[in-house]
UniProtKB/TrEMBL annotation:
Coiled coil: none annotated. SUPFAM superfamilies: Acyl-CoA dehydrogenase C-terminal domain-like, Acyl-CoA dehydrogenase NM domain-like. The keyword Lipid metabolism applies. The keyword Heme does not apply. Residues 284-445 form the Acyl-CoA oxidase C-alpha1 domain. It comes from the Eukaryota. Pathway: Lipid metabolism; peroxisomal fatty acid beta-oxidation. It comes from Scylla paramamosain. FAD binds at T148, G187. Pfam families: ACOX, ACOX_C_alpha1, Acyl-CoA_ox_N. GO terms for biological process: fatty acid beta-oxidation using acyl-CoA oxidase; lipid homeostasis. This is Acyl-coenzyme A oxidase. Keywords: ATP-binding, FAD, Fatty acid metabolism, Flavoprotein, Lipid metabolism, Nucleotide-binding, Oxidoreductase, Peroxisome.
Length: 661
């Protein structure tokens, strides 16, 4: 009887939370999706997938063996591909939904549908695209992108796989000369893919031209056996996404036709002569698209985590806020609000920044088609900055959400551990974050120096040498805070550039000096990127077409985001003199008020992310809040609970217990 009452209380608790909502949840959902029509379409696709019993896991993936896990996810992803094709739903459209969440432990075809497809589109010439793209679209070819080797990931020039042109046969000979030249990590390479885009050192006419991409068939298109000269397999269990069969690959003097070199940008002609690309940064396009996709997926993953932790915090009661009074919802604790609300704000900050980079990408693509590549470096740097910041923020945010759920956040059925493991890897792939931030820093230093010399610099970094505008905005207004960010970032770049010069005078070597300043350089890049994200959040909220109520809640979230990141970085603001100790203390006070103000909106805000229970996949975060019932039900699925006494008791425990040792 009392158990029933508890469950009823949880449902009632969330109903009360929703009753306090100050804005139209559906309107905010539309903003999150990018428009009303997109919300409707997303729901339609998600309904189609969720109503199909083939996507349900009878046995939770955590209980499956490594092989069964892979087999089950391949079953689901192939069913998903067929279903989407039957309903004429393009993959790009499906990727804006949450349907991939039916693949609980990753997606063995993800590299095929993303990196491989993008690389073909941007690196293959029109004739090659005609040859391979239709086959890839029909999944006759399943590809992966094989760049990283055991010995080298970040330093692409250090790759050791060779592709030597043989003018006699007009073929390239691919070879892996050392153990460290083994390709290592590509998703789907182990057992799924039958082809790959392989990055290898190109040699022709006795000269090495550096790493170039090649289309390489790895397996027989009918039998799926690996081809002679190709040695491949799976690399073994990872921290997460264990069904993605990340693989290894070696070549033993494996021959491919000359025309398999992807020749959109550079070419090797029949006589072996090399034709270099007109612009060496033209292949940035693929990387930018992939990084923006990562930024989008980071905001979705973080949105899932805050949905789970916020709903749970509304139904969970613990301890006493006032001695002797009933246990409050844990969401009443200010510390809990501080754990969750800034990350709810962060979802929007990441999303709005991604949209801004995407808009810029479209403009740059249009300029490139007219032969103007001027803005390409700017786009490249912004995508690096946003990928680094959003992967770091979402990973930390998900971990905070997990901790905010106490012990239950550690249980697999909460969904939080797998959200963490599938997000933290984005810090490493598509450019390791520290390395990306150092690239951003290089651009900042270069632009700062150019600005000082009166040379032209690109828009996003003009502020580094522009005069301060601090006095123009009312003190501590949003605009003033953005200006404080801008000046602090410029100040840090200036300070670091001076340090770099001093270090150079000592070392007499730019590279050693750079390394000696690299921690400070990473801080420069982080502050610049944070400034960009804050600025995009604010400008989007200020220009958004929304009702007053939705705008008001977004303004509060944006204000919280700005103040939160100022308090986290307060040293930089004090150093630059843009904010005083008193200002920071006033802002901190305001942050605590904002936490209290936004607290009643916490559940409606995460409801606006509109995740279906099936796709959220969490015992703690379901719509109805029946946390304890779900946790208990899920525990019944443990194979250990099939019998009262386990096999291990008879085999090991009993002999020990009876041995009197
Ligand atoms: C889940 C997952 C999926 C992947 N999928 C693919 C795939 O499909 N295809 C593919 O080709 N690869 C893939 N990778 C590989 C990935 O791209 C590399 O792991 C990544 O590029 C980092 O390279 P690395 O592992 O060699 O690390 P390293 O480059 O060795 O980095 C190790 C450390 O050294 C530091 N470091 C390195 N260089 C510098 C520098 N210049 N300055 C300062 N610090 C430096 C880094 O910051 C880091 O802390 C995947 C990796 C993971 C984890």
């Amino acid at each position: 009887m009392s158990e029933k009452k508890d469950l009823q209380d949880c449902v009632e608790e969330l109903r009360r939370e929703r009753a306090q909502c100050s804005f139209d949840v559906e309107e905010l959902t539309n903003i999150f999706d990018g428009g009303k029509e997109l919300t409707a379409r997303r729901r339609e696709i998600e309904h189609l997938i969720c109503s199909d019993p083939a996507f349900k896991d009878e046995v939770p993936p955590e209980y499956l063996s490594h092989e069964d896990l892979y087999t089950n996810e391949v079953r689901k992803v192939t069913h998903l591909m067929r279903k989407l094709a039957e309903h004429n739903i393009p993959l790009r459209e499906a990727s804006i939904t949450q349907v991939h969440s039916v693949l609980r432990d990753g997606n063995p075809l993800i590299v095929h549908t993303s990196m491989f497809a993008n690389a073909l589109a941007s690196l293959a010439n029109p004739k090659q695209q005609q040859q391979w793209v239709p086959l890839a679209e029909k999944n006759r070819i399943i590809g992966t992108y094989a760049q990283t080797e055991i010995g080298h990931g970040t330093f692409v020039r250090g790759l050791e796989t060779t592709a030597i042109f043989d003018p006699e046969t007009k073929e390239f000979v691919l070879h892996s000369p050392t153990i460290t030249s083994t390709k290592w990590w590509p998703g789907g390479l182990g057992k799924t893919a039958n082809a790959a885009i392989v990055m290898a050192q190109l040699y022709t006419q006795g000269k090495c031209y550096g790493p170039h991409p090649f289309f390489v068939q790895l397996r027989d298109f009918d039998t799926h056996h690996s081809l002679p000269g190709v040695i491949l397999g799976e690399i073994g269990p990872r921290l997460g996404i264990n069904s993605q069969d990340n693989g290894y690959l070696r070549f033993d003097h494996y021959r491919i036709p000359r025309t398999n070199m992807l020749m959109r940008h550079s070419q090797v002609l029949e006589d072996g002569s090399y034709v270099k690309p007109i612009h060496n940064k033209l292949s940035y396009g693929t990387m930018v698209w992939t990084r923006v996709a990562i930024v989008h997926s980071c905001s979705k993953k973080l949105a899932c985590a805050v949905t789970i932790a916020t709903r749970y915090s509304a139904v969970r009661h613990q301890s006493e806020l006032v001695p002797g009074k009933p246990e409050p919802q844990i969401l009443e604790y200010q510390t809990q609000q501080y754990k969750l609300l800034p990350h709810i704000a962060s979802v929007f900050a990441i999303l709005f920044s991604a949209s801004s980079v995407l808009r810029m990408q479209r403009n740059v693509a249009a300029s490139i088609s007219k032969g103007n590549v001027e803005l390409l470096p700017e786009l490249h740097i912004l995508s690096c900055a946003m990928k680094a910041l959003s992967s770091q923020d979402s990973t930390q945010g998900i971990e905070t959400c997990r901790l905010a759920c106490g012990g239950h956040g550690y249980i697999a059925s909460s969904g939080l551990p797998s959200l963490y493991t599938s997000t933290t890897c984005t810090i490493t792939y598509e450019g390791e974050n520290t390395v990306l931030l150092l690239q951003v820093a290089r651009y900042l230093i270069k632009s700062y120096r150019a600005g000082l010399e009166g040379l032209p610099v690109l828009p996003s970094v003009m502020y580094l040498t522009a005069p301060s505008a601090m006095h123009q905005s009312p003190p501590l207004s949003n605009q003033a805070l953005i200006e404080a960010f801008r000046i602090s970032s410029a100040n840090l770049v200036k300070e670091t550039e001076s340090r770099l010069c001093r270090q150079f005078n000592l070392e007499q070597n730019f590279h050693y000096a750079w390394n000696r300043c690299s921690v400070a350089l990473v801080h420069c890049a982080e502050l610049h990127s944070r400034y960009y994200m804050c600025e995009k959040f604010l400008s989007t909220v200020e220009s958004i077409r929304a009702s007053d109520r939705v705008r008001s809640v977004l303004q509060d979230l944006c204000r919280l985001y700005l103040i939160h990141h100022i308090t986290l970085n307060q040293g930089h603001f004090l150093r630059s003199g843009t904010l005083s100790g008193v200002d920071l203390s006033t802002l901190e006070e305001e942050m605590y008020e904002l936490l209290a103000k936004l607290r009643p909106q916490a559940v409606p805000l995460v409801d606006a992310f509109d995740f279906r229970d099936e796709l959220l996949g969490s015992t703690l975060g379901a719509w109805d809040g029946r946390v304890y019932e779900r946790l208990y039900e899920e525990a019944q699925k443990s194979p250990l609970n099939k019998t009262d006494v386990s096999k291990a008791y008879h085999k090991y425990l009993q002999p020990l217990m009876k041995s009197n040792l």
